[in-house]
Amino acid sequence: MTATLPTRPALLMGEGLPRFEAITPEQVSAHMPALMAQLEAELQAIEQRLDATAAGQPLSWEGLMQPLQRLGERLRWSWGAVSHLNGVCNTPELRQAHAEQQAAVVTFGNRAGQSAPIYRALRQLQSRSDLDATQRRILASELRDMELRGVGLEGSEREAFNAASQELAELSTRFGNQVLDATNAWSLQLTTPDEVEGLPVSLLEQLAQAARQSPAAGDLSSASAEQGPWLLGLDATRSGPFLQYSLRRDLRERIYKALVSRASGEADAELGTPGNNWPVIERILSLRQEQAHRLGYANWAEVSLASKMAGSEEEVERLLEDLRQAAYPAAAAELEDLRALAAREEAAEAADFQPWDVSFWAERCRRELFDLDSEALRPWFPLPRVLEGLFALCDRLFGIEISAADGEAPVWHPDVRFFRVYDRGTGQAIAAFYLDPYSRPGSKRGGAWMDECLVRSLAADGTPVLPVAYLICNQSPPVGETPSLMTFQEVETLFHEFGHGLHHMLTTVERPQAAGINNVEWDAVELPSQFMENWCYDRATLLGMARHWQSDEPLPEAEFSKLLAARTFMAGAATLRQVHFALTDLRLHSRWSPDGGQTPEQLRREIAASTTVLEPIEEDAFLCSFGHIFAGGYSAGYYSYKWAEVLSADAFSAFEEVGLENEEEIRATGRRFRETVLSLGGSRHPAEVFESFRGRPPSAEALIRHSGLAQGASSGP
Ligand SMILES: [Zn+2]
């Protein structure tokens, strides 16, 4: 009699490429609880073993870090596959199965992160003298993360810390909900043609659709783009274009004021006014300050910076001041240009220019200067040609060959492609990736992202595990014989995500805790992705791939010039705006305190004096909707956007310095980028990684130049 071995469910394979079609919602509900119970039992066994190990008895990396890593990897593999499918093949059943298991996964992470026996053992391991630099950095990050989770606190301090963490999580949710409620509570019905004068057809269609779908419908159910009525709202997709195009200045003023004062007034059930975020802001800031003190830091900004590349608040302040000085005069000049255009058209606002006039005149100015229609460029960017161009660039810069291997790996949708990456020098396969390019409304999350499928490591038997990436975009699918035709922005997005993918795939670090994007500081992780975007503006790269899908004609030179010029249009205002946000965020978390005699709003207005060219109007309560720092994870970290841009622009400028036409030098510089930035992952401090490529610390000069802000370096007000 032959016994049939029970086969392991697809969800619990724990290694290799997932068999996506076999990972069903039923599997998730049936097997995740068992997996979590098993991992918990193994975690306890590790803790007991550590407790039983007599103090002073030597611990080895293999004895401690490997079992912990394998434990984490089993969860990452299974839950990663479920989360991936939830993003790209969503169904109500899968979403529910995912939601039901999520709490257990989070709890397990918190539990392991606060484990006292593991923390003690890691500290003990740290004292060993035979660890290499990568091991030391992995250990240091692990210990720091556990400390920031409060593992070092005892008794009542620990209780207070956990209670405050809980309250902070609730306050964040409340903040976000109140912004959402305030956004949804406001609407304005437009009924006469003069109220919608100037609006493009696509916006009229959207406003009519909003009217038809509004709960107050009934008489609005027959709304049409041509006849109205049209329903205006504060969501970005309606308010943004309205401010850009509406000829009705009074309506622009109304919607602008409603937008900047969201969630800043007293709640009034009768009027339907939702909650006020001012008290929420003060409570969040006070609690964060208390948490920082409990953890032994002077303020929350120090807590945030403890796990970032930026070394200190002063360092961030210095960068923001450099950018402010470059951007201020440019932003002031841009504003003058808009005013001058308004004056030329004899518009009333020329004399009394207000914030609700900016978008409108900027759009006029943009059309006048560039006449750039992003839709019209699509025929020059068919996906197959763009991929050829991208792969050729990667070959040229990094010496890798990318070839299609469709059919060699299970996929989650017929449109998904699979590719293998080979090293040109050795001919060896070094990585692979999936590409899921098209949008699938209803079942695939919007946006674009890179995620890890397999992380580079050594299997238990010593054989190498090659990294595999998921690259997800959301562009329009092919129609009949017409391939997917991309906008230039979609091309940039693809290059961006591919940069993250290269970081993940070209790593040479074999310890998974620091391979690829793992253990890379948050403010440095966008370096490879933004670096790749720069190549979309490189003449040889762009004109090499931009060919009309039918005629094979290259992109006309005039269109290329417009793309280059549009890149820096209104860059002064855009940079200054980011500086204003970043500085406000940083100082609220470093200089503000509840008994300091200043409200958060007063602090923000003080900062606005030198970081805005049009003073915020009286109703402006922007902090009450600053979700990034009060409802998201960016507190004292908003500066990261600009920080990473400094790194990526400066890295690209190494190529500009040797000359973008100098083939030999470009290849050599590309190889060096691969051997440093793309190879070292999180095994070294990002400053060290950057210097090993650039030969010096980063400088903001390239970013300022690329943004067109290099001239007029006087220092503003
Ligand atoms: Zn990114």
Any descriptors?
717 residues; alpha+beta; Glutathione S-transferase Yfyf (Class Pi), Chain A, domain 2; Neurolysin, domain 3; five-stranded mixed beta sheet; 9 strands; 54% helix; globular; binds zinc ion
Describe the overall structure.
With 717 residues, this protein is an alpha+beta fold. 54% of the residues lie in helices and 7% in strands. A five-stranded mixed beta sheet has the order 3-4-5-9-6, with helices on both faces. α1 runs parallel beside α3 (92-113) and α15 packs across α16. 38% of the residues are buried. The model is unreliable at 712-717 (pLDDT under 50). Bound molecules: zinc ion. Zinc ion (ZN) is lined by residues 496, 500, 526, 529. Zinc ion (ZN) binds at residues 496, 500, 526, 529.
Summarize the structure.
The protein is an alpha+beta fold and 717 residues long.
Distinct ligands, ions and cofactors found in the model:
zinc ion
Low-confidence runs of at least 5 consecutive residues: 712-717
The 3D shape can be described as globular
Radius of gyration: 27 Å
In helices, the fraction of residues equals 40-55%
Query: How far is the N terminus from the C terminus?
Result: 89 Å
Category by helix and strand content: alpha+beta
Count of alpha and pi helical runs: 26
| Counted beta strands | 9
Can you summarize the main beta sheet?
Answer: 5 strands, mixed
CATH fold category name of one domain: Neurolysin, domain 3
The CATH class designation of one domain is Mainly Alpha
* Mean pLDDT over the residues: 93
